[in-house]
Amino acid sequence: MNYDPIKKDLGIVFNQNTTLRKLFYSLLNLLLLRTWHVHRELKAWMKKNTSARILDAGSGFGQYSFYMAQKGKQYTIDAIDVKDDQIEDCNQFFKKCGLDNAVFAVGDLTQSIAQNKYDLVMCVDVMEHILEDVTVFKNFNEAMKPGAMLLISTPSDQGGSDVHEETGESFIGEHVRDGYPVEEMADKLKQAGFEKFEILYSYGAPGKIAWKLSMKYPMLMLNTSKLFFVLIPFYYILTYPFSYVLNWMDTNSKHKTGTGLIVKAWKS
Fold it and tell me: In what order do the strands lie in the sheet with 260-266?
């Protein structure tokens, strides 16, 4: 299934004004389990870092930049993405919100980004879309200050992208890889110059169910017909209480396996 057309349609609906856009961000924060895991890691990082320069690498709709920019002017965010329409849209939205500590620009993560500039690099739902991953990791390392942290959320090889067989097809058509084995991720981080890192599974048993309820089934419905946009709110009224509990369980548990990875790496 191609996910980008659905994302584009959602953007058209929620970008009509700032209130709807903020509502959209709130819904993403509630529904996306990866957001629960990323916010947990960001909250822990912010306790030790009261001011910082941050790179949002592959900013998409801009929800993670918005989350950090709202925390205060002490966080300055540079956000880059390959989609120029989303970049322009995010710059306009942040300007309307009076958030001048986040700037969006078109950028290619496979090209050099900066030198020793960032205290934190966020890369969420991105690496599964890029073939030249070691090059990107090297560019992150180059752009980070000594002691800075890289935070990645990406599918694992344990059923990530909803692939359950070796020859299976990714649920998300835009993915260039189904997911990372932990050993492969560790090896590629080492190749990029990272010596210290931590790789955790996300989307364990509770998360797998939550993902199907909150994302897979609604996306399948929307991919079938846009008429389901009308029915989706009623679907979530019925199912979200269960998804909420499952998301909480997944975020607050350690998993021996899971369909997602949360990766933290520090520059020496």
Answer: 102-106, 75-81, 52-57, 118-124, 144-155, 260-266, 196-202
Give the pTM. 0.89
- Sign (positive or negative) of CA dihedral 100, 47, 58, 11: negative
pLDDT per position as a tens digit, 44-65: 999 999 999 999 999 999 999 9
Q: Which CATH number do you get for residue 23?
A: 3.40.50.150
Domain span at residue 196? 4-266
Residue 36 three-state SS: helix
Q: What is the pLDDT of residues 210-249, one digit of tens each?
A: 999 999 898 888 888 878 888 888 999 999 999 999 999 9
Question: DSSP letters of 73-85?
Answer: TTEEEEEEES-HH
CA 235, 241, 242, 245 dihedral sign is positive
Residue 128 CA: distances (Å) to CA of 156, 181, 244: 9, 12, 26
